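We modelled the chain as a single entity of 365 amino acids. Its sequence is:
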Amino acid sequence: MRKGQRYPAEGREFADAASGRHVRQITNHPSIHHHPFFFVPAYDRAMKRLIFVSYRTGLPQIFFEDRANGELVQATDRPDLADWSIIPSADGRYVYFTAGTAGWRVNLGTFQEEQLADFGAVEMREKGMVGAAMGTTALSAGGRWWAVPVKSGPVTRFVLVDTEKKTSSVFLERDTIGHPQFCPDDDDLILYAGPLTDRVWLTDRSGAKNRRLYERKDNMQWVTHEVWVPGRRTVAFVDWPRGMQMIDVDRGVVRQLTYSPAWHAAPDDAGERFVCDTNFPDRGLYTFDVDGDPADEAEPLCASDASSEGKHWGGPFPYNDGPVAVEAAQHTHPHPRFSPDGSRVVFTSDKTGHAQIYEVFLDQD
């Protein structure tokens, strides 16, 4: 198998048994598939391609669905791809990723790969399956800046790559850096996850304005899965399992966003509503309004029937005494994400025995 190879469309369509909504299964090969992490776009802005990872060749590779004909296209053929590092550019031209100890991008038109950074002799990621161990990266809205956490001995270096000049430099070092995200409205603001006991942090591109954005109220509050809300300069985060809160990054004002169960929750591009998956118990995927009454029930979207590995989510906050070993393979989690036009939600489910990519349409007609 080689990059540039096209595979026949594998899609099939059905109605969700509970909601009646139209669902399309995009992949159907007996291997692992997953779209990018829940706060990373899966589609380019024009929705010509849906980006995902497939293990059908035996190793994780970047693929995309050609939306014009449904064909699945292999974009990489590497032995060392870090599959959760992938992040597409909004214009659909590139997918950025780490492989080995370097930063790369692949041109989705020509399949040419460029190395943009060499991180040296480093571990790259922390050990484990969650948080900083996933190796997610961040790309600014315009595509100029790419931020990559790099684990190097006792510290994590935050590396900023200039994708135009093809230069890179370390702008921040600290104990742990996970799940970086550029503000969709300000290329000089980067949200990231610090230690699991002190999670929500913000920095500028120089690292000089690094600061804690939210401090948990007690040592059993489980703050997780933070994400920017477009158009608002606010960050939403899960207060597991008690719903979600939202904080204004300039004024520090915190308000309750929802009391409905939300696990991984991502906003639409307009910053008007969220989609989330659920766990303990799995009630499926839901949507809720950003400006609604937080006491309002979220609206059921569809079932996911994903196995959602991670028994630690079923109990109280487990990390006060340090990291814990958990079986939490991320491809077993739905990680729902709106399309750019808000017409559908992409998610992953392993309900068939292998993780596959699906999209559910919000308009039941």
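As a brief sanity check on the tokenised model: The chain has a mean pLDDT of 97. The chain has no helices and 30 strands.
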